[in-house]
Design a protein that fits this description.
The structure is a homodimer. By secondary structure, chain A is α/β, with parallel strands linked by helices. Chain A contains 17 helices and nine strands. The termini of chain A are far apart.
Chain lengths: 371, 371
């Protein structure tokens, strides 16, 4: 059934129709003209932009208007750990890092270390460890320590709570009930939580004492937080934050979204070589039942999770990506080789990532702000 | 109609039947045996205890059991400013100060500077000023700076939020809805708030790394917060806080509770001499229509607000209080003189209070803890 899917920050179900989702959420599409405007400033486009992985936005043209007037924006994104970070989690951070570099702007990165305790019952101690690990993963992606602030809600609560107080006043239970699917039996922490997530969207304006435009790269499931946020932040007299929104890296089986809590559906950044190999083996390719049939009929790269992994993250070069897609389509690339190649590519990526983590480890505190 | 009254932290209505209230809330009465137990440690009893102004409790016997085993309790009380402090607000603080002195224990005093923004829409800037003024009023009552911590929620949020997170997880919207009369249109700050008020009831146990008994002096309208708190704090593995609960100083017109937000129903700690005189003039005495009739029939000290002001706060000496009550009852004390005497007494009290405030002003920071 068309439209038979559900996307909230706490649940992604069904086969997502991203066009319909953009309409439902009231997002604008990222079109060629907008990409061209970005390219003017960045020289080239990030492959996630070229490939429509970031496909929708709010007020991105306004962000560029302001930028062109000399009014720099800042970036805000984040992650609420409920498990170790996956390759899917890289999508917003890779774009954020790229935007920071190309536009020379600051980035605020929130790691709420209470959200999944409230929303999912994860133990606080576990989240605490996951949060530091996430910070290290993020810093290792090449963020500029001079221009990046990473913070954990509970360690930055004096700064955040004061502002969350102002947000919470303007959001009712009815509003969060509709937005997040809460019930009367939901805990009051989870009910309050969106106030904390709203704060970094105007925190720099508070700090500077004047309005600073904010751009939020995010996966589209988080949009509802920022719909509420935009409304409230506007009422508080700050600029409404702009957003740039991504589709989900598909899960192993071709599901809409890779799940961080489903061990087998997910490649973690900490997975070792053998584990990655094993997991990639399980990826859905949609290839024909036999090598012979595959050679004859070919496959569909749009449905092949191996191809999609290249497209989302592991093959930045468009020509090389096209070669892979073509080989999948014309049946010359069989599943075994296809998967072995991707496993190699992911392992090389993760090995480099681990080296970057090691290098940055001693300097993590250069990124973290605390009260 | 019997029982036709309502007592919540956000609304006190009707003529309160304190016996029925204790039953409704599940409180134990403070009886002679319990008073005797306290007297054993304090030598004498505070007049508010002798007179049954503090009339109910939870687990106060347990507090004394632990104390007698050498396990000292600490005190926790507070005030959420929505207006300047009134003489009625003194009731919990005067007893808390006395308990601190007599038992040699610490006191934690919470001044939530967000609650009335959420619950009543008071401006934050106004609350901020009122909060500092309240801290000065409280410190001026003779608290020991070595043994007292006063904190404002927003300035102590790093400490408080971390613990409130644990509380909020265990309270549902249904629970606060029932307890505080919220609706779906209540804001999510107010819904969350009780989590912050719960924290000081176990904060010392967190700080010490072992369980410390906590005793909370309060006006009975706050009981519902601590019913929730006791439940949650028990689940977190800490001692449930004990409480000792007071009746309300009646309002000018004989209403159940002096209202801090009804200017004319209230004597503020900052009122000058003339204002106090004028306000005391308005007090309900229940005396007869003429001096002649009053001399003949006398009045009822239990209904006379002037008498009750002496009883609650301004006449600690039982013999002198009895003389005043007798004179009211037998008709020898006419309203004019009665009121003039009380105004003089209140003004002397407030003048001393202002001197104490001045003396302590420069040392207020000795009491305040911040993150």
């Amino acid at each position: 059934m068309a439209g038979d899917f559900k996307v909230t920050p706490y649940k992604v179900e069904g086969k997502i129709d991203y066009d319909m989702l953009a309409k439902q959420f009231g997002l604008e599409r990222i079109d060629e003209a907008l990409l061209e405007r970005i390219r003017k400033h960045t020289g080239m486009l990030h492959f996630m932009l070229r490939r429509g992985i970031y496909y929708a936005h709010r007020d991105l043209n306004w962000i560029l208007d302001e930028y062109e007037k000399g009014n720099k924006f800042y970036l805000y994104t984040g992650i609420a750990p409920s498990g170790p970070m996956t390759i899917g989690h890289l999508v917003p951070f890779m774009l954020t890092q790229w935007l920071q570099e190309k536009f020379g702007v600051e980035a605020y990165i929130q790691i709420p270390d209470e959200e999944k305790y409230w929303a999912r019952g994860r133990p606080l101690e576990e989240i605490h460890e996951l949060s530091y690990d996430a910070a290290l993963n993020i810093a290792a992606l090449g963020f500029d320590p001079e221009k990046t602030k990473i913070f954990f809600d509970m360690e930055y609560a004096k700064t955040l709570y004061r502002q969350a107080v102002r947000v919470a006043k303007r959001i009712t239970f009815s509003m969060v009930k509709d937005a997040f699917g809460m019930t009367n039996e939901s805990n009051i922490g989870w009910i309050f939580y969106t106030s904390m997530q709203a704060v970094p969207a105007f925190l720099k304006s508070v700090e500077e004492g004047h309005n600073v435009p904010c751009l939020i790269p995010l996966a589209v499931d988080q949009d509802v937080h920022f719909r509420l946020t935009r409304d409230v932040v506007g009422k508080l007299g700050y600029y409404k934050p702009a957003t740039i929104e991504a589709k989900f890296l598909p899960g192993m089986s071709g599901d809409a979204k890779m799940s961080a809590s489903s061990e087998l559906d997910t490649i973690y950044l900490h997975d070792d070589e053998a584990t990655v190999k094993k997991k990639v083996q399980r990826m859905f390719t949609g290839q024909q039942a036999t090598a012979e049939l595959q050679r004859k009929h070919g496959g569909d790269p749009d449905k092949c999770v191996v191809c999609q992994n290249y497209r989302y993250i592991f093959e930045p070069d468009d020509k090389k990506l096209k070669a892979i897609f073509d080989a999948e389509r014309d049946g010359t690339l069989l599943a075994g080789e296809h998967k072995a190649d991707l496993a190699k590519r992911i392992n090389a990526f993760l090995e480099q990532h681990r080296r970057n983590r090691e290098k940055i480890k001693g300097r993590l505190d250069d990124f973290i702000v605390r009260d």
